[in-house]
Amino acid sequence: xxxxxxxxxxxxxxxxxxxxxxxxxxxxxxxxxxxxxxxxxxxxxxxxxxxxxxxxxxxxxxxxxxxxxxxxxxxxxxxxxxxxxxxxxxxxxxxxxxxxxxxxxxxxxxxxxxxxxxxxxxxxxxxxxxxxxxxxxxxxxxxxxxxxxxxxxxxxxxxxxxxxxxxxxxxxxxxxxxxxxxxxxxxxxxxxxxxxxxxxxxxxxxxxxxxxxxxxxxxxxxxxxxxxxxxxxxxxxxxxxxxxxxxxxxxxxxxx
Length: 256
Ligand SMILES: Nc1ncnc2c1ncn2[C@@H]1O[C@H](COP(=O)(O)OP(=O)(O)O)[C@@H](O)[C@H]1O
Ligand SMILES: Nc1ccn([C@@H]2O[C@H](COP(=O)(O)OP(=O)(O)O)[C@@H](O)[C@H]2O)c(=O)n1
Hints:
Residues 95-125 are annotated as: NMPbind. A ribonucleoside 5'-phosphate binds at residues 101, 123-125, 150-153, 198, 209. 48% of the residues lie in helices and 14% in strands. It is built from ten helices and seven strands. A five-stranded parallel beta sheet has the order 4-5-3-6-7, with helices on both faces. The radius of gyration is 20 Å and the shape is globular.
């Protein structure tokens, strides 16, 4: 009789420590779900045996995933630089804005309308939605280095991350693309004119996005700056020039 209950080893539970490589069918199992990490020994042994099939990969990713937050005004060039970082260094790029737009367009999404309203008005979507999208994307990627672009963008984002993700990840630094407001506006309008299809690359939405950035995002950047975690990059030169600085920062922080 298996009366005793067996606690799943903690290491199998947390992000990047096995979960990222678990096949889909495990993802709602007791192995996966942090809230139900106790199961009968029979279940545990069965899951354990199946999990052992993927053990080599699990062992390789035993460290916590590394995270770099990428912040800056709307149109500062965060996405452009993230693509270059991905090309040069082994990072997975997760744009909070892209994930929200994807969720907005997903058939059957219960958040579609809410997300559209927030985006059009330049407001920050409640962190419960954004952080879950980020965590899922991290788990599904199987990678261990992430550029989290456009997040955390306000106090609610930061609090949510600290509640849900900070223990499971290692934040490296904040890459801050510093760009004058008029340059940001010009870039966003340019992006709109060249067919971004974004419902917020217009002057009316931009005014609100800039206001949100000044009121809600800058204090978060300031907070990280006071903690000595900000790498500030002048985002006004052309993209290749900006990347020279970005590359220097990553190399100086031990990334190859
Ligand atoms: N350094 C740069 N100089 C000029 N234009 C740029 C530069 N970086 C990005 N852009 C252009 O500005 C627009 C916004 O860039 P993007 O990377 O999408 O910004 P963000 O992700 O910060 O909103 C895009 O059309 C992009 O091609
Ligand atoms: N953490 C985030 C990031 C983006 N967003 C929403 O998505 C919009 C677009 O963000 P984005 O990062 O794709 O684009 P930029 O404003 O940086 O150009 C923001 O104006 C917000 O409405 C959010 O709610 N929360």
